[in-house]
Amino acid sequence: MNHLRFDAVSNLANLQAPVKFETASKITAIFNENVFTLKTARHYLTDDAYKSLLASIRGGKKIDRAMGNQIANGLRAWAESKGVTHFTHWFQPLTGLSAEKHDSFFTIKGDGTPIEEFEGAALIQQEPDASSFPSGGLRATFEARGYTAWDPSSPAFIMEIGEGKTLCIPTIFVSYTGESLDTKTPLIKALVALDKAAVDVCQYFDKNITKVTATLGWEQEYFVVDAGLANARPDLLLTGRTVFGHAPAKGQQLEDHYFGAIPERVYAFMRDFEQESYKLGIPLRTRHNEVAPAQFECAPIFEEANLAVDHNTLLMDVMSRVAKRHNLKVLLHEKPFAGINGSGKHNNWSMSTDTGVNLLGPGKTPKTNLMFLTFFVNIIKAVHNYSDLLRASIASAGNDHRLGANEAPPAIISIFIGKYLTNVLNEIEKRVGGDFDETDEAILKLDIHKSIPELMLDNTDRNRTSPFAFTGNKFEFRAVGSAANCAGAMTVINSIMAETLKNFKNEVDGIIEKGEKKEVAIMQVIQKYIVESKVVLFEGDGYSAEWEKEAAKRGLPNVKTTPLALDAFVTKKAKALFEDNDIYNHVELEARHEIMLEEYVKKVQIEARVIGDLATTLIIPAAVKYQNTLLQNIKGLKDAGLDESAFASQKAIVAQVSKHINVISENVTKMIEARKKANELTDTRAKAIAYCDDVKGNYFDIIRYHVDKLELMVDDATWSLPKYREILFLR
Ligand code: ADP
Ligand code: MG
């Protein structure tokens, strides 16, 4: 008999007050405490080393060997002052997690003297064994070398959760032959491409702009459940989601969780992981309950996109580690519970200039109005032209349970811009022939800066069902999965924006060369882009069935599953885009496509195994046991001389349970067959499709349906999997 479920429930009742931890009186007192910020660097580095570091961060300048040694020494001195003995290159391989390989500063010199040292070479480059990270065939196993190389634009930090303290150096991860094996390398390249293309366009408006940075503010949704209960669910442990579980009598229908009081144990956990995050320089700002029971969200102040991505990866790690201290488990999966809202990670994205202007902040003068409109319309154009890539950038086995599944949001990429801007675009579109005037009153003197904040920042004008929404001074890409590394979405958004801006500039320059005024040329291309891409604009309810129909009429793609969505990465168009902007070459793209398909296959394969195992070894035995109890009861009643009517319901239940057992058992057998067949396929895409349609599509739901029916019938005392009501409501 499996006691985990009942032990977990009774342990909860005995649970002491929330775990104690140190709290700082002020966030500013601990913020960046464990980060090698420029301020700290100034303190620990010589003038030359500091200048070299700064030049590398600001202008991407290479750091030479001598300077590398000096910086490494400074870093070590700082880290040692904080009790650090080990360092690691911290990188984000294509597993979606972060990876580390720890080395100590300790070494023994040629003459046998033991010393602590950290050389520039060790700071700048390392060679972890790449063979255990996904490479999509980029690296034959005999050539397992891969390199991590320092990314000075994201500062080094000290990770001190759990045992020991480690100096972490954010790095990129590339193969021996130079292809990227991580999420950071292409992101940095996309950010460089965007910078160049955006600065070129900014020059039309302000010659002082020399750098444009993409900004990202993510909102992380997650579930928190008791660790004891989670540990009694093998499916949660192995797949991150519950593959079975009947909806509880009380779900989220009362809508009493959103912005409700945060439960005490969770509140302690939140404050604890926030403290750890602040020390690491993650600028968390908000925390609150989400819609579903046991669901929460946190969001930081936005940052430069590369740093923001690192911070999100780090946060997910910190949350999971800190949760352990509180005997809790964080679920980052997109859909841990059927019938309960899933989790996303909204990516708020914008661009800002080195003159301090947010390019998606509506302007206050005619000139800045036009700059705003230019960037705004270019985004619409980019999303329209590459909506398939955006969809692909968020595709994963987990996110398939949200996008395009029976619960919203849909897999259709559309843009919400609000009433006011819709009118502005309509006005521009109506000017047939593009007879614009350089001082065009109607367009350039719109009170965009006054009206948008009023309309957009008012929550009533915020369409929450749009996957890509303008929210006053930024776009919010809402379809990103909660477990995803934001780099995937950010690489695509910044790449397509770079490409679109480049084309925009070519078109505008072409018109100017023919003798047209700059402002007029810009307005003409803006008008053209509006006409070409307006089908992607949608202001209505993105979750409705009508929208699916309407979107189909408009020819917008609606790809519901990952294996097919990923095709967008290897189209001619995608290859051209990424190669022209020096983000991925086609070998890297093919490899990534392969890796993502493989990951999908593995995830579904594990789920299928877990479903089969649990059904066979936990569910059916519990049902049989219950049947035996009933049969004994029937026999007893019969022996006591009672007639049929005394045990008619028991008999009916026994028969009903048998029916469910049969369907489950039959389908588990067939599912195993389907899996075997899928495994025989050598083409990874075909295999992924087989796993999606034949294994998952044909069997997951039907098995679950009958298991969940049994859960409602079988004696609660023999049911060993914690039920939704316990996982979601006990803490
Ligand atoms: P909400 O979406 O709940 O209204 P906010 O408007 O405060 O919340 O912003 C949500 C997220 O958007 C935060 O992480 C915030 O830092 C981020 N954000 C705000 N402005 C920008 C910007 N210009 N670029 C990128 N992210 C931004
Ligand atoms: Mg939001």
Looking at the structure, the CATH topology of the largest domain is Creatine Kinase, Chain A, domain 2
- Main sheet: strands, sense, barrel: 9 strands, mixed
Radius of gyration: 28 Å
- CATH class (first level) name of the largest domain: Alpha Beta
Q: Which spans have pLDDT < 50 for at least 5 consecutive residues? A: 451-460
Number of domain units? 3
User: Which structural category do the helix and sheet elements fall into?
Assistant: alpha+beta
Write out the CATH superfamily name of the largest domain: Glutamine synthetase/guanido kinase, catalytic domain
Question: In the CATH classification, which architecture of the largest domain applies?
Answer: 2-Layer Sandwich
Write a structural description.
There is one protein chain. Helices cover 50% and strands 12% of the residues. With 731 residues, the protein is an alpha+beta fold. The protein has three domains: 152 residues, Ubiquitin-like (UB roll) (Roll); 386 residues, Creatine Kinase, Chain A, domain 2 (2-Layer Sandwich), CATH 3.30.590.10; 132 residues, Four Helix Bundle (Hemerythrin (Met), subunit A). The strands form three sheets. Strands 9, 10, 11, 12, 13, 14, 15, 16 and 17 form a nine-stranded mixed sheet that branches. Strands 1, 2, 5, 6, 7 and 8 form a six-stranded mixed sheet that branches. β7 and β8 form a beta hairpin. About 1% of the residues have low confidence.
